[in-house]
Amino acid sequence: MNSDSDLQIAGDILEVPHLLQPAREHPATVAEFVGLARTIAADRSQWEHLVRYDATSRWYHRLRTGPGYEVWLLSWVPGQGSGLHDHGRSSGILTLLKGELTERTERGTRALDAGAQRVFAPGYVHEVVNDSLEPAVSLHVYYPGLTEMPMHSARCAAAVAPDIAEDVVTA
Predict the structure, then answer these.
(1) Distance CA 131, CA 111 (A)
(2) Phi, psi for residue 155 in degrees, rounded to 5
(3) What is the C-alpha to C-alpha distance for residues 168 and 8, in angstroms, rounded to an integer?
(4) Is pLDDT of 90 > 60?
(5) How high is the pLDDT of residue 16?
(6) Cis omega before residue 144 (within 30°)?
(7) Whole-number Å distance between alpha carbons of 136 and 125
(8) Residue 130: how many CA atoms within 13 Å on its side-chain side?
(9) Hey, how many other C-beta atoms are within 10 angstroms of the C-beta on 37?
(10) 109-150: pLDDT as tens digits
(11) What phi and psi values does residue 39 have, to the nearest 5 degrees?
């Protein structure tokens, strides 16, 4: 029986720095931003204690910033919604942390459950609403950071921007 371990045979890769890929300090691709959102979502200690619920308006808190991006935490009590809007020149990732939300676009309505993620490009027009009977919490990553959120009327939504969101399958 061979008792040599892989470490004994090949050596410790951590001892060969030129073979290691440098870790990015900040996300730079859509996949890395999705990964950032998933990492924050998975670590409830980063966000759960910050959540507040406000019956008069949606509550929000900027959780983190990095070079050119922002991460926001939002709560939604039953009946609260965003109104029909886009995010200007920002792309985004919406991750539902807790509860249920409904997303409405010109293409239809989509129910979002905890763990669901939506990725969208600049100009994507949608409305997000808590149609359930329980509060919801969501995480939003914007790149570049959110500087505008133009509101739209229902009649002009189809003419403003095509529905260019992408679903991201969560594990």
Answers:
(1) 9
(2) -70, -25
(3) 40
(4) yes
(5) 54
(6) yes
(7) 21
(8) 23
(9) 24
(10) 999 999 999 999 999 999 999 999 999 999 999 999 998 888
(11) -65, -45
* Residue 92 or 26, more confident: 92
Type of residue numbered 4: D
Average pLDDT, rounded, for the chain: 84
DSSP labels, the chain: -----HHHHH--GGG-GGGSPPPPSS--SHHHHHHHHHHHHH-GGGTGGG----SSS-EEEEEEEETTEEEEEEEE-TT-B--SB--TT-EEEEEEEESEEEEEETTEEEEEETT-EEEE-TT--BEEE--SSS-EEEEEEEESPP----B--GGGHHHH-----EEE---
In this predicted model, what pLDDT tens digit does every residue of 32-69 receive, in sequence order? 999 999 999 999 999 999 999 999 999 999 999 999 99
Q: How far apart are alpha carbons 74 and 151 in whole angstroms?
A: 18
Tell me which residue has tokens 């969560």.
Answer: 170
